[in-house]
Specification:
The complex is a heterodimer of chains A (89) and B (440). Chain A has four helices and two strands; from the N terminus they run αβαααβ. With 89 residues, chain A is an alpha+beta fold. Chain A is elongated, with a radius of gyration of 14 Å. Chain B is built from eleven helices and 26 strands. A five-stranded parallel β-sheet of chain B has the order 3-2-1-7-19. In chain B, strands 9-16-10-11-12 form a five-stranded parallel β-sheet. A five-stranded antiparallel β-sheet of chain B has the order 22-23-26-25-24, sandwiched between helices. In chain B, helix 1 packs parallel to helix 8 and helix 9 (395-403) packs across helix 11. The longest helix of chain B has 15 residues, at 293-307. Classes of the chains: A alpha+beta (89), B alpha/beta (440). Chains A and B meet through helix 2 of A and strand 22 of B.
Chain lengths: 89, 440
């Protein structure tokens, strides 16, 4: 049971580390809830206003901004950039 | 000599216009006039400030450095006159500014209904940051509040006050919330959520008088009977475009400033955009009012481009909003109107569109459970409207399918039969369209 849970958690983490946060500018009303809740203080709103993906070395893809956005502006998009090589870590 | 552009109003339409003008004209002198002593802030964000989710400082989304970066002068000044023949804007402090082109993007203000006691201290509306600050300050001492009105703003006020520990009563003039946009099940879902948040709903109840003592609110009188003692009366019965400046200048105005497909008003060099503008709806050929953030930005962009000299017609996009209604993330798209009148609103509220109230020639298909609802209006060839409450997986697909007028004839029967569930068919249709630009 525990092993199953840990395996699922690891799968989620693997999926998240190979993703980035992608905003959709047309939905953003610039309220700033995303930036306010980012544990690392990334200017998520600035990215959303500009319609740019949050490609920031500090981003943990923790999902706080995605979950808290009241307007569904942000989503995870997978990226080949962060995918570990076959057999790698 | 550099051309002079004056943008009256410091909201999203003006800033978008400024950016568009700058893209076309590197030398232009651009001035934004705002009558609030604040840098640009997120007006929709006021709801989250009111509810205590963010501090005031978080609302400022476009700091003054951004104005400087695009070479825009921001002045705190109230425009009190427009002289279209002389091409001048008159300011309250006695100064005037000449322009080659001027944008009127002054927005809309909350309607204050003519009811006894409306001017008492403690009667509040939610238009500006100062309004929100005032409500937050009052909520610290208030024990009980009464909210009247409809649409999104009434709920933002009710939920904001409740979140600050104020016992909140919400009066509805008929038997359900937002009855000309939401269907009965959607209204019920919202109302249930509000009740869970501790908000007390009073159906079929009219406010007949606001009671005061020594200039302050002490309660409300109700029809068909009864009173509620309270310290705050929050009013959100709709908004009205701020057309005074345009009207006094002799521009063509109806409910808003009437603009042509280039967003030009009826005088040379004058344009209008955002909540104040009555814009042509290409689907009906009628001029409509919207109070939607993204449409204001699009209109500002189009107006700015035309002010700078391009002749580019603006085609109004599908009105949509994604917001929280009763704590549920909700997307409203296109035409979703209901035949039941809504007496809680005069016209539209903020975050609202007249077009939503239109009842399309379409079949309605619904799906949902206790926490989510999905309603899709399926026309002969296209999906014409949709409401997505709670689970938002259908929000983006529907937005694409509706705004791009995707031909759904091939899946129409499957959508209408609803045998496979609504969302899987929408998702499949969307994927098919994304792959090939049409639905197979």
């Amino acid at each position: 049971m525990l092993r199953q849970l840990l395996r699922r958690d690891a799968a989620v983490r693997r999926a998240l580390v190979s993703a980035y946060v992608l905003p959709e500018a047309v939905r953003c009303v610039q309220c700033g809830l995303c930036s306010y809740n980012c544990p690392l203080g990334i200017d998520v709103r600035g990215h959303a206003v500009a319609g740019k993906a949050v490609v920031d070395d500090h981003c943990l893809t923790c999902g706080e901004c995605v979950a808290r956005c009241p307007r569904g502006v942000l989503r995870f998009e997978s990226s080949s950039l962060f995918v570990p090589p076959e057999g790698g870590a | 000599m550099a051309r002079q552009f004056v943008l009256v109003g410091n909201g999203p339409a003006s800033l978008a216009a400024a950016e568009a003008i700058r893209l076309c004209d590197a030398q232009a002198e651009i001035t934004i006039l705002g009558d609030e002593p604040h840098a640009f802030y997120s007006r929709p964000g006021l709801a989250y400030y009111l509810a205590g989710h963010i501090p005031q400082s978080q609302l400022y989304s476009r700091p003054d450095e951004e104005y400087r970066r695009i070479g825009v002068r921001r002045q705190t000044a109230r425009a009190v006159g427009l002289q279209p023949l002389e091409h001048r804007v008159l300011l309250q402090d006695g100064r005037s500014l000449s322009y080659d082109s001027v944008l009127l993007a002054v927005g809309a203000r909350a309607v204050r209904p003519k009811v006894t006691g409306i001017d008492l201290q403690g009667v509040v509306t939610l238009d500006t940051l100062e309004d929100a600050r005032g409500i937050v300050a009052m909520a610290r001492r208030a024990r009980r509040a009464v909210v009247v009105g409809g649409g999104i703003t009434a709920l933002e006020l009710a939920e904001g006050l409740a979140a600050r520990g104020v016992e909140t009563h919400y009066l509805l003039r008929r038997d359900r919330y937002w009855s000309n946009v939401l269907d009965p099940d959607e209204s019920e879902l919202v109302e249930t959520r509000l009740e869970h948040e501790g908000i007390r709903l009073h159906h079929n109840t009219n406010l007949t008088e606001i009671l005061g003592r020594r200039g302050r609110v002490v309660g409300v009188d109700l029809a068909p009977g009864g009173k509620i003692a309270c310290d705050i009366v929050a009013v959100a019965v709709g908004i009205e475009p701020r057309i005074e400046l345009a009207k006094a200048a002799g521009l063509q105005v109806r409910r808003g400033i009437v603009v042509d497909p280039h967003l030009a008003a009826s005088a040379d060099g004058v344009f209008a955009a955002g909540d104040v503008a009555e814009v042509l709806d290409p689907d009906t050929g009628e001029h409509v009012l919207d109070s939607l953030w993204w449409l204001a930005i699009e209109q500002g962009k189009a107006a700015g481009t035309n002010m700078a000299g391009a002749r580019r017609a603006y085609r109004k996009g599908t009105p949509f909003n994604v917001t929280r209604v009763g704590g549920l993330t909700t997307t409203i798209l296109g035409c979703v109107g209901q035949p039941t009148p809504d007496d809680d609103l005069i016209g539209i509220a903020r975050g609202d569109s007249e077009a939503w109230r239109r009842q399309p020639d379409a079949d309605s298909v619904e799906a949902g459970d206790d926490s989510s609802r999905l309603r899709v209006l399926v026309g002969r060839q296209h999906i014409l409207g949709g409401v997505v409450m709670g689970d938002q997986r259908a929000s983006r697909p529907l937005q694409d399918l509706i705004s791009n007028r995707v031909d759904v004839t091939a899946v129409r029967d499957r959508l209408l039969s609803n045998r496979e569930g609504l969302f899987p068919v929408i998702e499949e249709t969307w994927a098919s369209w994304k792959r090939g630009g049409r639905v197979l």
